[in-house]
Amino acid sequence: MGLLKTLLSKIRKTEDDFWDEDEFWKDDQEQTEKEESQWDWDSLTNERSFLKISDPLQRDKYIRSLVEQVKDASGELDKLSYEYNLVTACLKDMDELEALPQQQKAEVQDYAKRILFFEGEKREFKEKKTRMTDEQFYRMEQFADQMPKAYNDMKEAENYRELIRDDLKRLEGERHAYHYRQGELQHDVANCKGMVLICAAAAILCMLMLFVLQFVFEMETKWGYIVTVFAAAVMLTVLYVKYLDYSQELTKTEKAINRIILLQNTVKIRYVNNAHLLDYLYMKYNTTSAKELKQLWDIYEEECRDRERNEENEKELAFYQEELLKCLRCYQLHDAGMWLHYPIALLDHKEMVEIRHDYINRRQKLRTQIDYNKRLAKDGEKELREFTANYPQYAKEVLTMMERYGA
Question: What's the pTM?
């Protein structure tokens, strides 16, 4: 009914709200716990006023319920008694340890100190283990015999790549410079050709003017012809010499450009081969640079040292645990092995008190359960005896049911 009321109240809350399932079950659980806290769990109802003894089915169920009650309670008593005896034995072991002579106690505490030390080393190793994953460790272990040569080869390849890049940059700069000079020379050659045409045109024009002056105006133009021819000859000679110089330099520049292009092609081939080599090495060693490979290798070496040290610590831990176990067995303890899990309690009295308190609480809980199941078994047996006494004609049925369930 409580569950139904809770559900209806949530549905009426609002038409637009969603149903909060977690809150619903939380409220229901709280309601159930509240109701359960009001129940009488310890007392059982064995009322025969409503029972029709003459009805075989009801009588069989009634007898079976009592027999099962006795059987279940007896089974629980066996398990609880066993656990109770274990807890009691552990408490006695604590008393034995507290009562040890000083010399024997010092020996036990010495073993406990060593165990705590090596357990601390083991915990520290586990906390530091995140530096390198197992995959990285096993990969580096696979190539351990190739180090540090692999690092040197990768570093050399990376240095060579930088040299190639520098060469390419230098060649590219020279090529651009030669192309610029080529343009200048081509412009100068074109200028020389233009100057030759201009000089030739000027010489022809001067000759025509001198011819007109000589034949039309009947002037003396002999020296004019000489000067014009001489000037034209000098200018053409100078221009021709410059043209030859520019042409030769232009040829050398074009050859230099071709040489640089060939060198660039050669360097580019080396660069591609170097890039492919580095890609393979990066893939092989699962890294992106020689620096990263060196870092992984340094971490791997440190990890190897830590793992070797951890193996030694585990051996030492196992040795002192065995020694402590031998020592404790000499004192006839019921469970000497449990103190391998509580070495701090062998050193610190407060820790021993905490453990003792925990075991005392456990024994009290077990005592309560034992008393409860004893009462169940006793009440069941009493009810069966009363039923047999009141209805002796059904005593055989009770006996048969008890034999069937082994009660």
Answer: 0.55
The interaxial angle of helices 395-405 and 56-98, nearest 10 deg, is 50
285, 143 contact by CB (below 8 A):
yes
Angle at 111 between CA 316 and CA 356, to 5 degrees: 125
State the maximum Cα–Cα separation within the chain, in Å, rounded to a whole number. Answer: 183
* Residue 239 contacts residue 167 (beta carbons within 8 Å): no
- The whole-angstrom separation of Cα 153 and Cα 130 is 29
Residues in contact with 334: Cβ distance below 8 Å, sequence separation at least 6, in sequence order: 86, 89, 90, 92, 93
Backbone angles phi, psi at 58, to 5 degrees: -65, -40
CB atoms within 10 A of CB 197: 11
Cβ partners under 8 Å of residue 348, min gap 6? none
Single-letter residue type at 162: E
d(CA 138, CA 26): 49
CB 340 within 8 A of CB 118: no
What is the pLDDT at residue 357?
A: 93
- Asked whether the beta carbons of 153 and 235 are under 8 A apart, the reply is no
Q: How far apart are CA 3 and CA 30, in angstroms?
A: 11
Helix (H) or strand (E) holding 67: helix 56-98
Per-residue pLDDT tens digits for 124-135: 877 776 667 777
- Alpha-carbon gap, residue 356 to 375, rounded angstroms: 28
Q: Which two tokens stand for residue 382?
A: 């009493």
pLDDT of residue 37: 47
Taking the CA atoms of residue 69, residue 71, residue 77 and residue 78 in that order, the dihedral angle to the nearest 10 degrees is: -160
Cis amide prior to 148 (ω within 30 degrees): yes
pLDDT confidence of residue 196: 81
Average pLDDT over every residue of 222-233: 80
Residue from 358, 332, 303, 351 nearest 116 by CA = 351
Q: How far is it, in rounded angstroms, from Cα 277 to Cα 257?
A: 30
- In this structure, what are the phi and psi dihedrals at residue 159, rounded to the nearest 5 degrees? -65, -40
Quote the mean pLDDT of the chain.
79
